[in-house]
Amino acid sequence: MLWLLLLQVFASCLWLGHSEVVTSFASCSQFFHAGTPPNNVLEPQNPAWICQRYSNAYHFATLYNKDKRIPAYSAYIYQPGPGARSKSWFVEPQLINPTYPKNMDTEYSLQKKYKITPQQIGQSQAINQDYNNLKDLNRGHLSPSCHRNGNNSKWSTFTLTNIVPQNTAHLTRCWVIGDIPDAWSLAIVTPSHKKGCKANLGNYRRVHLASLPRKVMEQIVLSVITWHIQDSEGISPSQQRFRKGTSCLENLISFDDQMTSPVDEGRGCANICLDFNKSFGTVTHGILMEKPSAYGLQRCSLGWDRNSLMSRPRECW
Ligand SMILES: *[C@@H]1O[C@H](CO)[C@@H](O)[C@H](O)[C@H]1NC(C)=O
Ligand SMILES: *[C@@H]1O[C@H](CO)[C@@H](O)[C@H](O)[C@H]1NC(C)=O
Asked: Does the keyword Signal apply (predicted)?
């Protein structure tokens, strides 16, 4: 009896590990931070857990809403690299029928293989027809192909289970012209009472609430810029502040070493300290803008910087 039970558990593990539409993300947990998928807050009513499989390898994980035929999220590891974009769009065979193959496939090939109609495919997932003839909207990747390395990995993102309608005008303006959407630049300022008399304005702290998509985008842009500037040696290794994985203590120790060794050798030593203060607040915006362009930053991301520096509308609540 126990053997039978063990065998059953073993068989169900096998089934899990080899399936594309799974009952949990256990077989592709490597795409989540610390191997832990989010809790069920984002879970739709009729969910599908998809370990996105292409060319016999897992590439990312998607939580899919089968009723609304749209993904809730895709989890992936950011590894940008070379490769080509796919010319075809894929769908998920196992959302049509759990016995179908685990690798994503094109609608055309599934129609031929299983003698099914696009309508049958489209019952629990989006199909090409949903995205044809859309006005001002196109296919937006939740796991973008430009964050992937190699042909297979990039092509795996071209499954419609990874796609949401995306406002093209919005994005083009944002990236090409460097213009931030108004809703992104608006900071909502709420006064938060510190202590003392509430009638005295000086007793309030201003709390700025910036838009969340903007903050996420800022972090991405910042990490790429930092990367680029460190690679092209725009930041010297002795710069400790504002760099990840460095500490001011290290700088102090190395500085102390440089100061004390001449003294030990009986030589004189002088030290001039310049306080640059918080550069962002005090350096002229023109200089802040010139520096990155000298390191080869493109016009569009510079437009972003300029936009964030010059126009910060505020609204008080
Ligand atoms: C990737 O795909 C492109 C276009 O299909 C092809 O020219 C290239 O050789 C492929 N690269 C690799 C490494 O297979
Ligand atoms: C920077 O300078 C301003 C004004 O000159 C001053 O109020 C502020 O305390 C300084 N900040 C630091 C970190 O020294």
From this structure: yes
Please give the number of the atom of ligand 1 that sits closest to the Cα of 83. Answer: 1
CB burial string 177-214: b at 16+ within 10 A, e below: ebbbeeebbbbeeeeeeeeeeeeeeeeeeeeeeebeeb
Pair 76, 144: CB distance under 8 Å: no
Alpha-carbon gap, residue 249 to 235, rounded angstroms: 18
**Pocket around ligand 1: residues whose beta carbon is below 6 Å from it?**
83-84, 151
Answer whether 192's CB lies under 8 Å from 205's CB: yes
Which residue's C-alpha comes closest to atom 4 of ligand 1? Answer: 84
Residue spans per domain, the chain: 15-174, 211-248+271-316
148 CA to centre of ligand 1 in angstroms: 14
pLDDT, tens digit only, all 317 positions of the chain = 344 333 333 333 334 434 467 788 988 999 998 999 998 888 999 999 999 999 989 999 999 999 999 999 999 998 888 899 999 999 999 999 999 998 999 999 999 999 999 999 999 999 999 999 888 888 999 999 988 999 999 999 999 999 999 887 776 666 666 667 777 777 788 888 888 888 888 888 888 787 887 788 778 777 777 777 777 667 777 777 767 778 878 888 888 888 888 888 988 888 887 776 665 567 777 777 777 777 766 655 666 666 666 666 666 65
Count how many residues are written for the chain: 317
Q: Report the C-alpha gap between 16 and 135 in whole angstroms.
A: 40
**Ligand number nearest to the C-alpha of 279:** 2
Q: Give the Å distance between the CA of 154 and the centre of ligand 1.
A: 11
